[in-house]
Amino acid sequence: MLPVVALVGRPNVGKSTLFNALTRSREALVADYAGLTRDRRYGVAQLPSVSVIVVDTGGLASDMDGIDALTAQQSRLAIEEADLVAFMVDARAGLTADDEDIAAELRRTGKPVVLVANKIDGLDVDSGLAEFASLGFGDTVATSAEHRRGLGQLSDRLAANLPDRVSAEASPEPEGTRIAIVGRPNVGKSTLINRLLGEERVLAFDQPGTTRDSIYVPWERDGESFVLIDTAGVRRRSKVRETVEKFSVIKALKAIEDCHLAIMVLDAREGVVDQDSTLLGQVVDLAKPLVIALNKWDGLSGEERQHARNSLDRKLVFVPFAERVEISALHGSGFGRLLECVDRAIEASRLEASSGELTRMLLAAQERHQPPMVQGRTAKLRYAHLGGHDPLRIVLHGTRVKTLPASYLRYLENHFRRELDLIGVPLRLELRAGENPYAGKKNVLTQRQIAKRKRLKKFTKRKR
What we know:
This protein is α/β, with parallel strands linked by helices. It has helices at 15-23, 67-81, 97-109, 125-130, 151-161, 189-197, 243-258, 274-285, 302-315, 335-349, 355-368, 406-420, 442-463, and strands spanning 4-9, 41-47, 50-56, 84-90, 113-118, 141-142, 177-182, 215-221, 224-230, 261-267, 290-295, 323-326, 380-389, 392-399, 428-433.
């Protein structure tokens, strides 16, 4: 395992900015106000001669309650698993009572600590760092994370204070099948991830907008590696006014683009609203395997459940390939079937079929139902082969394929789905017309004929 370095401190001292600087990324959201970061975020940084895992955390402060208390708990979990703590303070604000409380808490843990005074721009370094000596953590490292100043000295200090440990090859991000948990705010995405992991890995709170960033969490199940992606809730564009929320939405949409499978979480009490349909449309447009989880199902009566099923049948007609699962993320009911649906969708997305097998299916479909006649002629489909997996594509070759109507293509898609048992995965059919061997050669032959006639004329004139 790699050594773990946790970045801790008061809110708005620059932890996320330093995280981005050390990992040479822009993964953590950054804004000039306190309390933006709430969940733990992990990244890999290369220090002199060693790679480390860096953990970005939310702010610690005294008298925290509600969601801030849960954020602080996430920070304490990061300290507990860390081999080294980078304790960050604000050089501009000076030493505060919260800094002293955090320092006392860190001393009780017995963890090695490197004190980092951030935001030194425009300050006299010696005088700015003098008051932090009273914290008792040795020499303070002066940095400006925003302008990348002092990072070399900080890297050297962190490497020198790490415990002895064999460093393995580090990957910049977790590896495995990526599963994005998406949905509107407050539908239970973070609770679902915590229930799957069996721990309070991401912050879950009964308040819309709790998750602000896309958090990638490694997960192993039955010997297979996965990465669960907790995303921020996506609201209608007209309601998104804050810049930070706009970036949160962008990251959520990027998570959908990067994932191998999406679990769309719906609130069973509210049914499918317009924003749910928009998000589902994003998943369909990107041709991602999909499972629909109806959360908070345990709170519905029998009549409400039947009404919800009827409503879902009407509103989810455009995603007939996706399986629907009724769950309770809070109590864990329905999770067995949810995981079965996820396994089926992942297996279908990895389809392996030979060209001969697909061609036989295509010819059987034509024998059962011939393409319609257009302008007195019908299209002829001759063979098929697998075109790719992300998205899953089957390429059909033939003549006059552009005349095939959408209804016949849906018939072919349903035929392939039934024969190949494709559940939970979208399928795209690509049409390719056979090339005419004489196309484009008519003009060449005509030019030859003209040249030959000219030679004959010249020969005839000479003879005369």
